[in-house]
Design a protein that fits this description.
The chain is built from nine helices and no strands. By secondary structure, the protein is mainly α. The chain is globular.
Length: 237
């Protein structure tokens, strides 16, 4: 749908939406700093029974980790606001009847992100850590930097959260008329290859085990996305 806006108007609108996202994000980050130590304790959960203690190798490393945790916490808290701004940016391209789905979009996209993060936190991270640490069990002593550990866990949580947005993204693209169920089925073999490449990029390690752990739910999500697209087309008709 042609919105009649010029390129400059699109860029101005994009800049406004980015500012609207950054302000609450920064405020939440500042508020999260004082809780960073407690959140670090929660992030230690995937390493229970695998890594007894974490180490740090520079005076500023712990401070950097706390800042990183605060920024990550701020992102989690800001997800609904960010999604709202995304919807407001693309809403001019939607039909009038489609704009009423804003609540459905924000709710489903938020839940998908949180479910993906939970999968990374409770499922993928503990299995990955156990597998990787056990590779050297009995021969080498693991001395894991707190910075490396937090980067590993946060990357898995964030990566899984974004991956689980696939059905919502397909739902949105179907409403915009960019994709449909027939196209998704036709391009399935290319999607499978892209999924494994994306899983290799998102996974913090280079081993095929963790890549496959992330790729499997992505393949399931792609099939769900096809169903969502087909259902959306039927609803439109």
């Amino acid at each position: 749908m042609d919105t009649g806006q010029t390129l400059v108007e699109h860029l101005t609108e994009l800049r406004k939406r980015i500012v609207y996202c950054l302000v609450p994000f920064l405020l939440a980050a500042i508020a999260s700093v004082s809780f960073s130590k407690r959140i670090l304790g929660l992030l230690r959960f995937p390493s229970r029974g695998v890594i007894e203690k974490l180490a740090f190798f520079s005076p500023q490393e712990v401070a950097v980790v706390y800042v990183k945790i605060a920024l990550f916490s701020s992102l989690i808290l800001s997800v609904p606001i960010i999604l709202y701004q995304v919807w407001k940016f693309i809403s001019p391209a939607l039909e009038e009847g489609q704009k009423k789905h804003i609540v459905v979009f924000i709710f489903c996209a938020s839940m998908a992100f949180f479910l993906g993060g939970a999968f990374g936190y409770f499922g993928l991270a503990p299995i990955s850590l156990k597998f990787l640490i056990n590779l050297a069990r009995g021969e080498l002593v693991p001395v894991i930097s707190i910075s490396k550990y937090i980067s590993f866990v946060l990357a898995l949580i964030l990566g899984c959260g974004l991956v689980f947005e696939m059905p919502v993204l397909i739902w949105l693209l179907t409403k915009l008329g960019i994709v449909n169920a027939a196209l998704l089925r036709k391009k399935r073999k290319y999607a499978v290859a892209a999924i494994f490449i994306l899983a290799a990029i998102i996974t913090p390690t280079t081993d095929p085990f963790n890549m496959c752990l992330l790729a499997m739910p992505m393949l399931i999500l792609y099939e769900i996305s096809i169903w969502v697209s087909r259902w959306n087309q039927r609803q439109a008709r």
